[in-house]
From TrEMBL:
Stretches assigned to the YscD-like Bon-like domain: 185-244
Transmembrane portions of the chain: none
YscD cytoplasmic domain: residues covered: 5-94
Pfam families on file: Y4YQ_C (PF23893), Yop-YscD_cpl (PF16697), Yop-YscD_ppl_3rd (PF21934)
Entries under SUPFAM superfamilies matching the protein: SMAD/FHA domain
Organism: Salinicola endophyticus
Signal peptide: none
Domain of life: Bacteria
Name the record gives this protein: FHA domain-containing protein
């Protein structure tokens, strides 16, 4: 069964389901993990029985082919099916069955020859019979030639260098393709750097990748686009464990000044009578950056706050 995400944060992801049971939700151990809001850790369960499909609404309501399935109930249907889970839309389809005729080997294209003395006024049936006989003879000749080539004596001349070069080129191309397909970590790191998401770190494990860190409100769109890009390119083969969270809003500095000393070694005196020199940290995480005659400058990461004197 093939699961396709048509709307939502992971739009465009295509996953091939091989197991008879598939659990979908926001939990890290779910078979299909979705990072969209409003999803339960185990929101729904899919069970496959031959051509039948059973959908169970475990953690919340879902809509299957336009029919609402309330939490704690289920529905049996056949593929293809469309599922709506909040703002996420999923489609379940069966893989296309290859045609029996397409699996049969194709005969080589033969060059038909006929004699000039062939009477063009002969009946059409005679012409068709003649062409069929000639094609059969050529098919036999080609097979005999292949058999003769395969039974060359041990002292025969070796194959030309061109065949060896072709084999090397094919092997090199195959290695490049396998290397490109097995490097999602390098591709994701480059994509994160290009998007300016430098506060998000990537870790590579045996069977999955994980990301952690935070993003600012202005980087939310870039992070969502990065997740969609990964799902479209690697989501069907690699699992990405997401532990990235939005950066919490910074509270204003909790500094209450009682006095400021502007000598050779300036410092502040807070409401507890404690001296705060440049570099001192406040309980809220703000740091006294500098003290001069006009202002006191405090910093918190990339943010700064100025107290005018």
């Amino acid at each position: 069964m093939i699961l396709t995400v048509t709307t939502g944060l992971h739009r465009g992801a295509v996953i091939t389901l091989h197991e008879p049971v598939c659990r979908i939700g926001s939990a890290d151990n779910a078979d299909v993990w979705l990072g969209d809001t409003g999803l339960s850790p185990e929101h729904l369960v899919l069970r496959f029985h031959g051509r039948q499909l059973a959908v169970e609404a475990v953690g919340g309501d879902i809509v299957v082919n336009g029919q609402r399935v309330t939490q704690g109930t289920g529905l049996r249907c056949t593929a293809p099916a469309t599922l709506h889970v909040g703002e996420v839309a999923l489609t379940l389809t069966r893989p296309a069955t290859p045609s029996l005729l397409s699996a049969l080997p194709r005969l080589p294209a033969f060059t038909l020859r006929w004699r000039r003395s062939l009477n063009r006024a002969a009946p059409v049936s005679a012409l068709l019979v003649t062409l069929g006989v000639l094609g059969l003879y050529e098919f036999v000749d080609v097979n005999q030639a292949g058999a003769n080539i395969g039974s060359v004596a041990p002292h025969a001349e070796p194959a030309s260098d061109n065949s060896r070069i072709d084999e090397q080129a094919i092997a090199g191309a195959r290695q490049l393709a396998e290397r490109a397909a097995s490097s999602p970590a390098q591709a994701l790191r480059a994509h994160l750097a290009a998007a300016g998401l430098n506060t998000i770190t990537l870790s590579q494990h045996d069977r999955y990748l994980s990301v952690a860190g935070h993003y600012t409100p202005g980087q939310r769109v870039a992070w969502e686009e990065t997740q969609r890009w990964f799902d479209q390119h690697f989501g069907s083969r690699h699992v990405l464990l997401n532990a990235v969270e939005p950066q919490p809003a910074t509270s204003p500095p909790d500094l209450r000044l009682s006095a400021v000393w502007l000598g050779d070694n300036p410092y502040l005196i807070d409401h507890h009578g404690k001296r705060l020199y440049p570099g001192a940290a406040l309980p809220s995480g703000w740091v006294v950056s500098s003290i001069d005659a006009q202002r006191v400058l405090l910093r918190h990461g990339d943010e700064q706050y100025a107290l005018t004197l």
